[in-house]
Amino acid sequence: MLVYHAAITAAEDYLERRALHRQAHFDRIVGLRAQGFVIGGGPAPDGRTADIFYRVAQPPDIGPLIEDDPYYLGKVWTAYTLRTFSQFIEPWELPPVVTDGSRRVTFVEGMASEPDMATFALIELRGAGRLAFGGFFEGGASLALLNTADAAEASAWLATTGFWKLDTLKARPFVYAL
């Protein structure tokens, strides 16, 4: 199975557009999650972007999962960029869906100086309840969803392992909806 990170851009008037499509979007994406196609996702706190993690069997399967979404069809989402994980650390379990914006977490991206050891570090962070999921792209770039709203704390969890290039670590807030 392939795991994709979809970085989604929203329309400038997304708040107005999303109201008409919100329930259909949630019904569909929660259904895809129940079928194992969606691992997790949600919006940035300002709603201007979203990140969704999809699991598919073949590369052609990813397009319809995004482009048939009511948000995409309704032009709430205007564009997306895909990255394929070469290695992915799955979540232990899927958390309940939370649509009120209360589950604040942090993405940390950066380059691993020692990718093999960094993989073990992510697994340990998951075991400690600090990592929801994450992994590596070709070339050693990583993306980790960390269970804290504190960006400095999230970055420190990776930095203290010694397996990331510190000057490449960048944290950003995220609302973990599903």
pLDDT < 50 stretches = none
Portion of residues in helices? 25-40%
Which CATH first-tier class of the largest domain would you pick? Alpha Beta
CATH architecture of the largest domain: 2-Layer Sandwich
Secondary-structure element series: EHEEHHEEEHEEHE
Number of strands: 9
Strand order of the largest sheet: 5-7-8-6-9
Task: Give an account of the 3D structure.
With 178 residues, this protein is α+β, with helices and mostly antiparallel strands. The chain folds into two domains: 2-83, 2-Layer Sandwich (Alpha-Beta Plaits), CATH 3.30.70.1060; 87-175, 2-Layer Sandwich (Alpha-Beta Plaits). 30% of the residues lie in helices and 34% in strands. The chain has five helices and nine strands. The strands form two sheets. It has a five-stranded antiparallel beta sheet with strand order 5-7-8-6-9, with helices on one face. The protein has a four-stranded antiparallel beta sheet with strand order 2-3-1-4. The longest helix is centred in the first third of the chain and has 21 residues, at 14-34. The radius of gyration is 16 Å and the shape is globular.
Short synopsis of the structure:
By secondary structure, the chain is an alpha+beta fold. It is built from five helices and nine strands; from the N terminus they run E-H-E-E-H-H-E-E-E-H-E-E-H-E. The protein has two domains: 2-83, 2-Layer Sandwich (Alpha-Beta Plaits); 87-175, Alpha-Beta Plaits.
Could you give the topology of this structure?
Layout lengths: L1 E9 L3 H21 L3 E6 L5 E8 L5 H6 L2 H4 L3 E8 L2 E3 L14 E8 L3 H13 L3 E6 L4 E6 L4 H9 L10 E6 L3
Antiparallel strand pairs: 1-3, 1-4, 2-3, 5-7, 6-8, 6-9, 7-8
